[in-house]
Amino acid sequence: xxxxxxxxxxxxxxxxxxxxxxxxxxANWLQQRQSGLFKPFGITLPQFNVLRILRGQHPxxxxxxxxxxxxxxxxxxxxxxVDKLEAKELVTRKQCPADRRTxxxxxxxxxxxxxxxxxxxxxxxxxxxxxxxxEEANQLSDLLDKIRS
Length: 149
Prior knowledge:
By secondary structure, this protein is mainly alpha-helical. The chain is 57% helix and 7% strand.
């Protein structure tokens, strides 16, 4: 559906305003769709992001600073997210033996199993991204990179 129909606005100041509004709307739309997919698993989008970061590091530990650097949502409170994941037994936290000021964070087997279970359910197909051709997906990715540069 076109952005004009989605937000019931027939005209925009210019093409830049339209693309800005469309980008913000689509980002929120994607987040809502993902949240709906995550709900049955009892985790949030930021928690999923942290688990995927930790799986990428596995079996090496990560620090909170490393997690913050790699998070998609830089406004999320990584320490609080790790606390919640630890309470769910999806991660463990231990003092680093080499540096007592550092805390090592590791994904647990339970966390790895949860991500494996979610891998088949949380993907581009469910989020409408497969409506794009591979060429269109590459072009959109390049354009989004260009906006941020």
